[in-house]
Amino acid sequence: MRWEQLPGLLAHHRVAARLLDAEPGQLGETLLPCLIDTHDGQPLVLLAIDGQESRLLSPVTGGELRMPLEQLRSLQRGRVLVAHPAGQDDWRAAGYARAASGHWFRDLVGRQWRRFAEVALASLLAALLAVASALFVMQVYDRVLPTRADGTLWALALGVFIAIGLEFLLRALRSVVIEQGGKRLDLALSRSLFQQAISLRLASRPGSTGAFASQMRDFEIVREFFTASTLGACGDLPFSLLFLCLIAFIGGPVALVPLAAIVLIVLPSLLCQPLIARLAREGMREAAVRNALLLESVDHLETLKTNRGEGRALATWQRLSASQSARGLRSRNLNAWIASWTTAAMQLAYVASVIAGVYLVFAGELTAGALIACSLLTSRALAPFAQVSQLLARWQQVRVAFEGLDELMQRPVERPEGRRFARLASVDGHYRLESVCWRYDAQSVPVLALDRLEIRPGQRWVLLGGNGSGKSTLLRLLAGLFDPASGSLRLDDRELAQVDPVDRRRHIGYMPQDIALFQGTLRDNLLLGGGDSGDDRLVAALDMAGLGDFVRRHPLGLDLPIAGNQSLSGGQRQSVGLARLILQDPPVVLMDEPTAALDQNTENRVIRTLEPWLEGRTLVLATHKRALLAWAEYALVLQQGQRALDGPLQEVLSATASAARRDGARQEATTA
């Protein structure tokens, strides 16, 4: 990891950090302790400075040592990292004198204020230098030509050449500054959006992956808006007033012409904004639907083919494409009309300024040189407004894209701003549920409603019930992936929602029904959470999961390339999921149909090998397979999201068998 990435990473964990260009001896006590990067790659924590000696802590060894400041300076490489816990609101102050909460995008842009200040300064200097060419022409026509003073001509020409060169350099430097700032904004914005996407609560994630991907891709529209052309036009806009004032100073009433032209240039774009907004909104919605259809068709191509759905999918695609193409054509025609109108308005303004100036020349109130200077300054004054007119045509598309990104950033996340979670160093695995209810949204009926349930440490429970009875939902609640809509869900006498998500993931191992594989190698997919487990440990976990022989026989072994879920069979993917769980080594194990796709021999081997591994762990298992009941001691039967029966496994099985016999006898009697 790069040193510059540490402040952003620490900010995610509620630690305010910054990098300083300073030597250890220059740091005050308020900045200690701090982290110092060294040439050997082993960072040191500077605890204190006692005269010419430093007191250090090595994060690698954990030991404390003393070192002369001169030696520490020779070891130092680059900047030092100072950090402190981020400030927290105190309830005693309530809302008194509280600063207004920032907006995610405004905060990111605000960090580039130095760049914007540099752009504004460069724009001001470039605008001042741009006046030189107009003044040059005025002086040539009014003073050089009547007197044939070629010496004055070359003196003026030298000055204007210098001004043009400086203006060129300033505008080139301004573009570089804007692009550098845009790059930083691009990186910060993309990081914030992706971090938000992977931090979403499962209950608040978007329903369609394709539409969500299209929404994320709209980030490109917002990013491209903040480029040199856009910010350059905005930077030049305030200085158009300078040109207008100069026109008024030189030509007097001639300044009314560019003022009227500004209205003619900008007004059509403003009047067309509602139509442009509607076209942009509808077009982007259809683009999202098209993208969703494309991803769904490719991901489920086998289902599409076996059910002869290609024709229907193609017809839907053509309908969406035709509608989007028609709206796109209408939008492009409108933008082309606005661009043509802007060009015509600028030409008319130039001609009108010449005509108005000619009458002033006839009246003796203006010289010929001043007339030409005013016409040149008119073009300069209107150029930024012409660019703004084009930007207004794009603004609605940017606005719609930004609304989609803003909606994403407002979705609930696992780690809300200002929330401090409880840390758990260890977990016994004691669950207690009371009046727990969960639903998809506030208006829907409860998917799960449990009046009570207690799972003691080390107990092994199996969840039984038909499809849609709430088994998977209960497992997600126990894993902390869902929060109850009401009721109490406690782990070791602490509300599970209070526990830091990091500790939930570390202490609670959850294996879902569908095992997802990611682009990379088999080793990468086993170590999704990072770490440096050796190959022996990985292969041992695969042996327990029933995939070890396959890996040993394959020429690439753990370097087997994985390209999504199509690279391995369903049973092999489940073995990878089991191996991930084994490598995590959690005290609480939650499994949702862990052997549903395994063949009988592999399933029996997995049951035998995992039996000793599960010893002493809290286990909650959802299954329809009778063979997995060998792991369980207790059972919970769910019907329509509610507890129908629970208790020791054999008692529950006997009760359900008796109930099944009674139902069968009742049906036979009814049939007879």
UniProtKB/TrEMBL annotation:
One of its GO terms (molecular function) is ABC-type oligopeptide transporter activity. It comes from Marinobacterium nitratireducens. It is a multi-pass membrane protein. It is found in: Cell membrane. SMART domains: AAA. Its main location: membrane. InterPro entries: AAA+_ATPase, ABC1_TM_dom, ABC1_TM_sf, ABC_transporter-like_ATP-bd, ATPase_T1SS, P-loop_NTPase, Type_1_exporter. The chain crosses the membrane at residues 119-141, 153-173, 225-250, 256-276, 336-362. This is ABC transporter ATP-binding protein/permease. One of its GO terms (cellular component) is plasma membrane. Residues 431-665 form the ABC transporter domain. Keywords: ATP-binding, Membrane, Nucleotide-binding, Transmembrane, Transmembrane helix. Gene3D superfamilies: ABC transporter type 1, transmembrane domain (1.20.1560.10), Cysteine proteinases (3.90.70.10), P-loop containing nucleotide triphosphate hydrolases (3.40.50.300). Residues 119-397 form the ABC transmembrane type-1 domain. NCBIfam families: type_I_sec_LssB. CDD domains: ABC_6TM_LapB_like.
